[in-house]
Design the sequence.
């Protein structure tokens, strides 16, 4: 089971995976118990000479207890799952719980491309040094990334499998997201909501950079403001 | 409808609290329960979107409450006349049932006339379904209601014709069920009217 | 008494003799039921074929699919057609296969019989309901052939994609799709009215509500759920059609609308709808379990209360389909709680069904094998719902194959395995012939095994992050390594589809050459077995009186191990 999850590279992704495994073991135990019981009863109570069926209606409270007690236990476990799930959901999705500062990127989905707008070295949107790049998300490692998500035409869904983050992009709305990536590398950002004939293949490259790589990327993209670092001052 | 609706009590079937209802009345109530959900959805959705949009006061100013009030009076009166038709039918008064059914049909047509006049005024002022979301709702809700009025007029007219030919037992019960439907159409309007024109 | 009943419903018409009145425009619920079954099976062939095409494309992307090349220029198809196949597969299976077969087919045929009535309360309305869905099917079928192709926005048809032909390239296909579904809703609304009035008002003497067979309870619960939930989707469908054709602004932000509104309307209906599709299948296995266990159903009333509770709860869970849709994040918790709560009544039902086997004497005839298969398989669907009910886990799993696997594990067992349970059980009653047991058992084994081979791997594919409605998985680096799974699943799907030929052969062969069945070949207790196989036009030559519960098998003191409902008490107490 574990090997099927894409590699987790986010701060909250591990908790999501752990919650999955918790649920998996809890429901798995019940599932196995129910199936084993079912097969056991099928075999034990197969029709045999000398073993007529018994007139058990299951309508007295003591008989119903056999159904109701397991049900109550199931209910209790459901509530435990919910108790663990609620705080994790709030951490990932409720804006009040977001980190208050971080690297900001604006994301816009359109048929059939993800557009990422970076504020540039001045850190502000709506200024001249904003840069929009199609299908490339660049973020520094171990930093909070705060994203605003929009859509230009139809519903899309912003999905970073390795971060365990997904959010539908809705035209007419700006929706906030956040994550913090913990491992440098190149991953994928995909669209997870049917958006037309080009939905399949609507994807981009998702780069998590080490601090050095990130500075290099910034200086390549914004050459005018490149720091005069000795190894990086060849303008592109 | 089958002729199983001819008797109010069905001694050959098992009893129980709701089981004594004539089939047609029970069937009509089930049908209406679903229809209530359709119009309820439109009204609830309209209310929510209107609040979110800030009231739509500018758009709503273009509606004509006077025509709507007249339409309300027409429809409520027609509900009264169909009740009279039913009472007459129960009492065996063919002429009375016939007359009241006809008046109900005519009042329904009058409603449609006023509505058509209202629509044409609005359209001539450039307010069409695609003008804005408010107008989309207005035309869709009143239009859907109007289609139900047309359906009711057709049913009532067929019943009016049936008073000349069909068995009286049949007519008696069908007037009641048509009346139920007609009341529903009236009640929808009684909600639509304040929701669109007044509040 | 029976003359009164007969005259009541049939005054003004005698048993029809002309071909048209007897087989085509019949008002006999048994004929109408068979017409619905025929329609459902025909549409299932198309629905199954679309599934084959989807699976072909996923296993071997951008190659020529067999058979398709016979229907159009080449077997190669692009993403726009793929989206259309995905859309039509879901639409056809839910609205034109599951509902016609389970409600219009078996429901129509057996509800009047099980309550001891001569027909439905409104036979002509019944006939109209069939021809209405027939028209809807024609409209939907026509949509395959229009310029721009059929609807391709998914069976969920979310706007803005589905609201503006410019955004999807689909024009008349989308209009016709909406029209077909709206007309289909009208058909089932008519049917629902008939089900409710017949069940409540036309029961045989002695048949109190607490003596109704569970199949009947399930059918009327489904009918109520449908009738009360269809309003919002009908409204939403009308609004969407107007957005498409008249430029209105319900769901398009550019015109002042809100795309999320459609999702709320759709899923407010959509969730009760999945129970509409689910409950009849449960009803059928609940008929079969006691008959082939020779003992009563465990917890008859508990099952009924649970069904009603599940039905009510189904109206307050809808936004679990929308956790990541852009709704206020704080709404997730209440809906997550209600979703997890709804597992409670289903747990009661599942445990009760399993407990029915305790103390049984099980005969493994084909209907029973299918009932047990339904139970065993549905459990997977039930438990995997827990994952999706947790909003946090759903962030990752929404829109992936995990969801696809989950809902196929709830829908397929109930609709198909449950439907097959009913078919093998009631074929003798409908035709007067027994089906072939060997073919039936083989059908059950291959279907069950191949179904699991198709959908268990898809859970893993979903965990890998594989999104839904993807035309070519090889376009994604992170999905390339799981491609062999797609190939395996497609082979299993081909086996699953081909295995259904065993059923077709069995039906055709048994209809003409099956062993003659007699009135009650299974020694069952419910009223449909009190009359001949097939029943006469008026159902019962003598309307039965009901003296007992529907599942009195192996009652102490009885001479035989079944005591039908129409037989007075063996112990002098009714």
Sequence:
């Amino acid at each position: 089971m574990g090997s099927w999850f894409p590699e987790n590279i986010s701060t909250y992704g591990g908790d999501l995976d752990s919650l999955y495994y918790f649920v998996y073991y809890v429901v798995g135990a019940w599932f196995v118990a129910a199936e084993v019981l079912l097969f056991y009863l099928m075999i034990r109570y197969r029709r045999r000479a000398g073993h007529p069926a018994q007139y058990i209606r299951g309508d007295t409270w003591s008989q119903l207890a056999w159904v109701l007690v397991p049900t109550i236990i199931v209910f209790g476990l459901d509530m435990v799952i919910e108790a663990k799930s609620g705080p994790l959901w709030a951490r990932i999705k409720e804006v009040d719980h977001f980190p208050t500062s971080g690297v900001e990127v604006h994301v816009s989905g359109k048929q059939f491309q993800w557009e990422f707008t970076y504020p540039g070295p001045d850190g502000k949107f709506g200024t001249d040094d904003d840069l929009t790049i199609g299908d490339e998300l660049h973020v520094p490692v171990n930093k909070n990334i705060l994203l605003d998500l929009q859509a230009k035409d139809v519903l899309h869904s912003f999905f970073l499998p390795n971060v365990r983050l997904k959010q539908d992009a809705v035209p007419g709305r700006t929706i906030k997201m956040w994550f913090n990536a913990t491992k440098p590398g190149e991953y994928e950002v995909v669209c997870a909501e049917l958006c037309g004939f080009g939905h399949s293949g609507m994807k981009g490259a998702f780069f998590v950079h080490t601090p050095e790589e990130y500075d290099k990327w910034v200086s390549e993209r914004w050459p005018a403001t490149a720091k005069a670092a000795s190894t990086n001052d060849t303008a592109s | 409808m089958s002729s199983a609706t001819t008797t109010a009590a069905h001694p050959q079937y098992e009893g129980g609290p709701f089981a004594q209802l004539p089939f047609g009345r029970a069937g009509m109530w089930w049908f209406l329960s679903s229809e209530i959900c359709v119009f309820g959805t439109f009204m609830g959705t309209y209310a929510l979107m209107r609040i979110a949009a800030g009231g739509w006061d500018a758009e709503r100013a273009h509606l004509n409450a006077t025509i709507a009030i007249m339409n309300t009076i027409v429809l409520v009166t027609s509900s009264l006349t169909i009740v009279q038709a039913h009472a007459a039918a129960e009492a065996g008064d063919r002429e009375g049932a016939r007359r009241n059914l006809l008046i109900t049909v005519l009042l329904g047509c009058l409603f449609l006339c006023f509505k058509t006049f209202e629509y044409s005024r609005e359209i001539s002022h450039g307010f069409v379904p695609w003008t804005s979301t408010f107008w989309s709702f207005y035309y869709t809700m009143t239009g859907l209601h109007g289609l139900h009025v047309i359906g009711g007029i057709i049913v009532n007219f067929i019943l009016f014709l049936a008073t000349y030919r069909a068995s009286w037992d049949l007519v008696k019960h069908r007037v009641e069920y048509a009346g139920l439907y007609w009341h529903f159409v009236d009640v929808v309007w009684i909600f639509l009217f304040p929701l669109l024109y007044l509040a | 008494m029976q003359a009164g009943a007969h005259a009541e419903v049939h005054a003004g018409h005698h048993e029809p003799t002309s071909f048209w009145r007897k087989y085509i425009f019949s008002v006999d619920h048994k004929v109408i039921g068979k017409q619905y079954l025929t329609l459902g099976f025909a549409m299932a062939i198309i629905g199954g074929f679309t599934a084959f095409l989807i699976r072909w494309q996923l296993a071997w992307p951008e190659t020529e699919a067999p058979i398709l090349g016979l229907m159009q220029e080449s077997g190669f198809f692009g993403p726009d057609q793929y989206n259309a196949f995905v859309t039509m597969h879901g639409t056809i299976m839910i609205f034109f296969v599951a509902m016609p077969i389970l409600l219009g087919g078996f429901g129509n045929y057996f509800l009047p019989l099980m309550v001891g009535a001569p027909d439905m309360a409104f036979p002509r309305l019944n006939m109209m309901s069939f021809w209405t869905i027939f028209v809807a099917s024609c409209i939907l079928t026509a949509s395959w052939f229009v310029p721009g192709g059929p609807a391709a926005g998914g069976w969920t048809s979310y706007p803005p994609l589905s609201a503006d032909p410019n955004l999807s390239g689909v024009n008349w296909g989308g209009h016709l799709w909406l029209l077909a579904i709206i007309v289909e809703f009208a058909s089932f609304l008519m049917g629902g009215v008939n089900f409710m009035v017949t069940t409540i008002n036309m029961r045989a003497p002695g048949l109190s509500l607490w003596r109704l067979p569970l199949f009947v309870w399930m059918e009327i619960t489904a009918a109520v759920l449908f009738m009360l939930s269809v309003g919002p989707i009908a409204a939403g469908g009308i609004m969407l059609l107007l957005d498409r054709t008249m430029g209105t602004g319900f769901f398009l932000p550019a015109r002042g609308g809100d795309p999320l509104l459609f999702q709320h309307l759709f899923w407010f209906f959509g969730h009760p709808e999945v129970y509409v599709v689910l409950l009849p299948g449960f009803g059928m296995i609940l008929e079969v379990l006691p008959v082939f266990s020779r003992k009563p159903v465990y917890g008859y009333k508990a099952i009924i209360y649970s069904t009603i509770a599940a039905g009510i709860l189904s109206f307050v869970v809808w936004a679990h389909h929308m956790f990541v849709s852009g709704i206020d994040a704080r709404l997730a918790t209440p809906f997550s709680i209600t979703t997890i709560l709804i597992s409670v009544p289903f747990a009661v039902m599942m445990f009760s069904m399993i407990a029915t086997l305790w103390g049984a004497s099980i005969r493994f005839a084909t209907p029973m094998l299918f009932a047990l298969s339904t139970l065993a398989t549905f459990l997977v669907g039930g438990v995997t719902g827990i994952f999706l009910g947790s909003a946090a886990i759903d962030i990752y799993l929404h829109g992936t194959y995990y969801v696809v696997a989950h809902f196929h594990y709830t829908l397929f067992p109930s609709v198909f395995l449950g439907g097959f349970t009913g078919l093998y059980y009631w074929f003798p009653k409908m035709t007067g012939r027994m089906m072939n047991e060997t073919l039936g058992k083989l059908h059950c084994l291959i279907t069950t095994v191949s179904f699991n081979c198709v959908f268990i791997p898809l859970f893993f594919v979903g965990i890998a992050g594989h999104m839904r409605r993807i035309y070519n998985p090889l376009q994604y680096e992170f999905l390339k390594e799981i491609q062999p799974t797609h190939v395996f699943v497609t082979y299993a799907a081909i086996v699953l589809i081909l295995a259904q030929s065993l059923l077709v052969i069995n039906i055709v062969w048994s209809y003409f050459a099956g062993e003659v069945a007699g009135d009650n070949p299974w020694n069952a207790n419910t009223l449909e077995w009190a009359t001949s196989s097939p029943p006469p036009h008026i159902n019962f030559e003598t309307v039965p009186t009901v003296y007992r519960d529907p599942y009195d098998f192996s009652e102490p003191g009885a001479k035989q191990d079944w005591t039908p409902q129409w037989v007075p008490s063996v112990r002098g107490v009714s």
